[in-house]
Fold this sequence. Notes:
By secondary structure, the protein is an alpha/beta fold. The chain is built from 15 helices and 17 strands.
Amino acid sequence: MKIGDTMKKIYDYDLGGKKVIIRVDFNVPIKDGVITDDNRIKKSLKTINYALEKGAKVLLLSHLGRVKEESDLAKNDLSPVAKRLEELLGRKVTFINATRGEEVENALNDNDLVLLQNTRYEDLDGEKESKNDPELGAYWASLGDLYINDAFGTSHRAHASNVGIASHLPSGIGFLVEKELDNIMPVLENPERPFTVILGGSKVSDKIGVIENLIDKADNLLIGGGMAYTFLKSKGENIGKSLVEDDKIDYCIDLLKKSDRIIIPKDHKCAKNIESSECYVKDVMDDDDIALDIGPKTVEEFKDVIRNSKTIIWNGPLGMFENPLYKTGTEEICKTFTKDQTVIVGGGDSASAVINLGYKDNVTHISTGGGASLELLEGKVLPGISSISE
Ligand code: AMP
């Protein structure tokens, strides 16, 4: 069963004349007041447009960055997002530079579409947003008739602007969250086999939850990226100066003993230092080598497994893909996927790798939430989702 199945969706409600609070994820990168990637804003348009078309008055809430001290306020001002949203929707967006007060309370009386200032401005005084302060959740809930969660990327957090509001109002999920659940949950619950999990990125410790949840379900677990070198070291191999987590060696030894489905790199693209423009391939490293990508034999081995898979979950790049010298492993994997496979890419670095290398059309779904998708892959229940009305 999909967890989304029993959950109320935005289209289960009659929105006409209602004040609808939509929690969106407008946590976009902003440099000197300019949005450098507006993908998250674009992804929210479907739900916002739907609510407006159905005659709702819409109040948008989002966080942006972290607010710990006064100097974080200006950096994390949401007003540039309101402007960009206005351009994308082609209609007026009223931005209220406050998270509470009279102007906030009256905003929907004269306007159809309102964005409040960054919800984390409330963190300055006692982390009210991030600690799900009950008074704050109740206050924001008092501004509307219905709450819609369309911020998948924050659904693994119990904050006032999601769980807090949802505990006071009828609620539902928006189209973005529904798409995430519809793509990810069936693969976790009933994957078409062979089912392959590809893990990369820098640390074993970040991926232990995913490994534990999927090791018995997956037919193959391919491990690349910096995390692979803790596994190699656990087998007694020389990993030179490659990334390693010495406190995870015992974990890797146990895991490799327990499972014969794990494939780790057999050759490596190395350099003498990260800045060097010279790289070379080695099967066996020396003390001064740093492995920064999987080597060509490993690429071929991984490709064979992928070609024979029906379902693939991928989290974490297989090398330091940001440097063109070490993007090959990650890129070759992207090229191998075919249309008759289901390929789910976790958010964060793996998502940017697939998008930046130009292969987003080769995969079935790229999650918009790094932490949230990781927690789903770990088999956890996301509070921002489980708090939604059934
Ligand atoms: P994570 O945030 O844990 O998913 O790790 C992503 C980061 O791991 C990316 O910035 C990659 O550049 C980096 N990475 C991948 N492979 C390696 C490697 N072999 N050595 C060092 N860093 C790596």
